[in-house]
């Protein structure tokens, strides 16, 4: 497995608690990276020459601003492309947004700001607009992440109906618990492929504060604080892995059948079925389907 990017989940904590969040982000979540852990991750990334980019996400990474800032600076000093994903809560005015972003000038390559009706009471929030204006002035690339409401056709089969610039919901995590019942389900046996992740060569993986390396959120390939990234990549066999192997050979439906599960009749999308199956299988694969934070067990 050849990686090109690492997305660091700086924290599971978030000042928001959005219904669509597949990480169960909330003010009550626990788990935050230390600077020592970030340095260790960057050190390991240097030994994997195909890794070119380091992104900081959450939760909400700006909640731990000094650590986020230092992490970006350290990554940039080592020659990595850098990026941040944020909800932009801090951009209460353009002047304030400039103060938050100015220390990143010259080290931060890009920032993605979430803005939609899950985060704010308007699609393009004033915070998002303030962040965009400040980023433009500082020469930092900024883009928006907007997730459509279930009524806008965010099931897989309705992606073509989504408003321009919007992405559909993935019904996993809190979205599976809160939103799946708002869409018409499809027969569980129809979900015979993973539509979102390249499980053989993912390119990028997520690393959380506990060192878990996620090929998809909640499916860990190993703990990098126990086994280095290079070794995890070298030993990973997608076909024989107990979770990805099933997903590759028949999607979430195969994951359920192979493990003797009895799904309900219909599910909102492939992620919804996969989320349900993985929850059922956690006792059996506790070192893979981890940590509790990914499954809403706060």
From TrEMBL:
Gene Ontology MF terms in the entry: catalytic activity; iron-sulfur cluster binding; metal ion binding
Q: Boundaries of each Radical SAM core domain copy? A: 10-103
- Please provide the record's keywords in A-Z order: Iron, Iron-sulfur, Metal-binding, S-adenosyl-L-methionine
* Xref: InterPro entries: Aldolase_TIM, Radical_SAM_PqqE_MftC-like, rSAM, rSAM_sf
Per UniProt, what is one Pfam family of this protein? Radical_SAM
Quote the Gene3D superfamilies the UniProt record gives: Aldolase class I (3.20.20.70)
The protein, known as:
Radical SAM protein
CDD domains per the record?
Radical_SAM (cd01335)
């Amino acid at each position: 497995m050849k990686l090109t990017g690492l997305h660091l989940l700086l924290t599971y904590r978030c000042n928001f608690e959005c219904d669509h969040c597949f990480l169960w982000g909330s003010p009550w979540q626990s788990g935050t990276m230390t600077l020592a852990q970030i340095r260790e991750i960057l050190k390991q990334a240097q030994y994997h020459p195909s890794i070119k980019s380091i992104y900081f996400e959450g939760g909400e990474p700006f909640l731990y601003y000094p650590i986020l800032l230092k992490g970006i600076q350290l990554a940039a000093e080592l020659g990595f492309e850098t990026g941040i994903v944020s909800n932009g809560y801090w951009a209460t005015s353009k002047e304030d947004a400039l103060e938050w972003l100015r220390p990143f000038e010259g080290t931060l390559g890009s920032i993605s700001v979430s803005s939609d009706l899950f985060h704010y009471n308007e699609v393009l929030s004033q915070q998002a607009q303030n962040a965009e204006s400040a980023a433009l002035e500082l020469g930092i690339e900024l883009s928006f992440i907007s997730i459509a409401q279930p009524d806008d056709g965010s099931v897989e089969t309705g992606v073509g109906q989504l408003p321009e610039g919007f992405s559909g919901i993935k019904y996993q995590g809190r979205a599976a618990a809160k939103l799946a019942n708002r869409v018409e389900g499809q027969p569980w046996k129809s979900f015979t492929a993973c539509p979102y992740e390249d499980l053989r060569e993912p390119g990028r993986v997520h690393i959380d504060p506990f060192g878990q390396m996620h090929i998809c959120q909640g499916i860990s390939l190993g703990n990098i604080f126990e086994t280095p990234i290079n070794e995890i990549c070298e030993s990973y066999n997608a076909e024989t892995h107990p979770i990805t192997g099933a997903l590759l050979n028949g999607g979430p439906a195969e994951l359920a059948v192979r493990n003797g599960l009895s799904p309900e009749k219909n599910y909102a999308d492939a992620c919804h079925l996969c989320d349900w199956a993985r929850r059922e299988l956690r006792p059996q694969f506790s070192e893979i389907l981890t940590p509790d934070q990914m499954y809403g067990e706060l």
